[in-house]
Design goal:
It is built from 15 helices and 17 strands. It is an alpha/beta fold.
Length: about 400
C-alpha cells in the first residue's frame, strides 16, 4: 500500500476542527500534524473539511439494485458491486447491509438473505467499503430459526435485529395500493398471499419463545442486537433484557427516553432529517436529536442521507457540525463495537473524507480514503506530485 499525505485541511480532531495535515500509512492514520517527507501520493486538502468516514449500521438501499422494479431482478453480485460504489461515493466507508429475512418469498425471503450473506462473504475483498452483514429477522419467520441460529453461531452475522411488521402487514392488506406492492414483491398471486399471511399469523403463540432462543444464541456468539420500531418503554425493556442494547427507530419520545435512561444506543434514519420528518408520520428525528435522544443516524433507504443530514443539522442550528458528525461516524462505530474507527486519531483505521462545504446544505465529496486506500476522487487537481504515485494507489470511482 502507498502512504498518503493530506495537506492542510480542517480536520475533525476530537471535538474541534483543526487546521492540520495527516499522514496515512498502511491501513492506519500514522500521524496527525504531519509533514510530507518522502510520501509519493499527496492530496491538497486546503479549504476542505477532513472528516472520519461514515459508518452506516442500517442501509437497505441495495434492494433497489437487486429489484429496481417489482418483478425485475438483477444478479446479487452485480447489485452489491453497484451498492458498494454508491456507498463509497456518499462517504460511507463502513456499511452494514440491512438484509430482511422474512416469511415472505422473493426479495425479502430467507433464501434471498442466505444468498446475500454468501455473496457478501465472497465479494468482501473486492469492496471499497468495509462491508458487513446486518440480519433483520422478522420474528414471525419461525421456519428460519434453525438456519439463523447456525449463522449466528458460525460468526456470519455482524448485527442482528428483531423486526415485527406483522400488525402493519395485516393492516395494509385492507389498503389496495400497499397490498398490491406487497403481493408484487413476493411474486405470489393475491389468493396465495392471503393464505400465506393467514398461516403465518396462526403461529403467533410460538414467536416469543423463538425470539428468546435466538437472542440467547446471539449473546453467546457475541453478536450485537437491535430491536426495531419499539412502540413502548415496556417493549424496549423486554428487548434490553434479552441483550438488544440498540433501539432502532423508536416510534415515540416516551420510548426513546426510556432507551436513553438506560444508556441504549438510539438509531434514527438520516432521510428523516434531510426531508424534515418521517415518511411514515412517526417521530421527527431532528426533534429527538435536539433533545439528546439520538446517538446514531443511519442511511436507512437512501445512501446520500447521512452526509446531507449532518450538514442539515448544523445549518438548522440543531447541533454544531462537530457534534452532528458524531451521529454518522463515532456514534454508529461505538454502537457496533468498532473501536478502531469513527474518529481521526493516530493508529486508528484510515477512513477519511475530504469534503467541500462551500455551498450550504450541499456538501461535495472530493475524496474518500477507506482502510488506507484512496478509493474515490472527484477532483484530480487536488493531487500533489501524482505522477510519482504508483497506478494501483489510485482507484477513482
Amino acid at each position: 500500500m502507498t502512504d498518503i499525505f493530506l495537506e492542510g485541511g480542517r480536520a475533525l480532531i476530537g471535538t474541534e476542527l483543526v487546521e492540520t495535515s495527516l499522514l496515512v500509512s498502511g491501513t492506519e492514520i500514522a500521524q496527525v500534524d504531519a509533514s510530507r517527507g518522502r510520501t509519493r501520493l499527496a492530496i491538497d486538502a486546503r479549504n476542505l473539511l477532513v472528516l472520519p468516514g461514515i459508518v452506516d449500521l442500517h442501509g437497505d438501499a441495495f434492494e433497489r439494485q437487486m429489484m429496481p422494479r417489482a418483478g425485475v431482478d438483477f444478479p446479487i453480485d452485480v447489485a452489491l458491486a453497484d451498492s458498494d460504489r454508491q456507498a463509497i461515493s456518499n462517504g460511507i466507508t463502513t456499511v452494514f447491509h440491512a438484509t430482511t429475512c422474512s416469511w415472505e418469498p422473493g426479495l425479502r425471503s430467507a433464501d434471498n438473505a442466505r444468498g446475500l450473506m454468501e455473496a457478501i462473504e465472497r465479494q468482501r475483498p473486492q469492496f471499497a467499503a468495509d462491508t458487513r452483514f446486518h440480519l433483520r429477522h422478522e420474528t414471525y419467520n419461525l421456519d428460519a430459526e434453525t438456519d439463523i441460529s447456525q449463522w449466528l453461531s458460525d460468526g456470519r452475522v455482524d448485527l442482528f435485529a428483531f423486526n415485527d411488521h406483522m400488525d402493519g402487514t395485516v393492516a395494509d392488506m385492507a389498503k389496495p395500493r400497499k397490498r398490491n406492492r406487497m403481493v408484487e414483491r413476493t411474486g405470489l398471486s393475491s389468493v396465495d398471499f392471503d393464505r400465506l399471511v393467514e398461516r403465518v399469523v396462526s403461529r403467533v403463540d410460538e414467536v416469543t419463545a423463538s425470539v428468546s432462543r435466538l437472542a440467547a444464541t446471539a449473546r453467546t456468539a457475541g453478536v450485537r442486537m437491535l430491536s426495531h420500531d419499539d412502540a413502548t418503554p415496556a417493549m424496549r425493556q423486554e428487548f434490553r433484557e434479552l441483550g438488544a442494547l440498540i433501539a432502532e427507530f423508536p416510534i415515540n419520545e416516551e420510548t426513546a427516553r426510556a432507551a436513553a435512561s438506560h444508556g441504549d444506543a438510539i438509531v434514527y434514519g438520516a432521510p428523516n432529517v434531510v426531508r424534515g420528518g418521517s415518511h411514515t408520520g412517526w417521530t421527527r428525528a431532528a426533534d429527538m436529536i435536539a433533545k439528546g435522544l439520538c446517538s446514531v443516524l443511519a442511511s436507512d433507504y437512501y445512501y446520500p442521507a447521512q452526509l446531507l443530514a449532518a450538514f442539515r443539522l448544523a445549518a438548522d442550528g440543531v447541533l454544531p457540525l462537530t457534534e452532528a458528525w458524531s451521529l454518522v461516524s463515532a456514534g454508529p462505530a461505538r454502537a457496533t463495537g468498532l473501536t478502531d474507527r469513527g474518529v481521526l486519531a493516530e493508529r486508528l483505521r484510515a477512513d477519511i473524507l475530504l469534503v467541500d462545504d462551500s455551498v450550504s446544505l450541499r456538501p461535495r465529496l472530493i475524496a474518500v480514503i477507506s482502510g488506507g486506500k484512496l478509493v474515490h476522487l472527484t477532483d484530480a487537481t487536488r493531487l500533489l506530485g501524482a505522477a510519482a504515485a504508483p497506478r494501483e494507489a489510485v482507484v477513482a470511482a
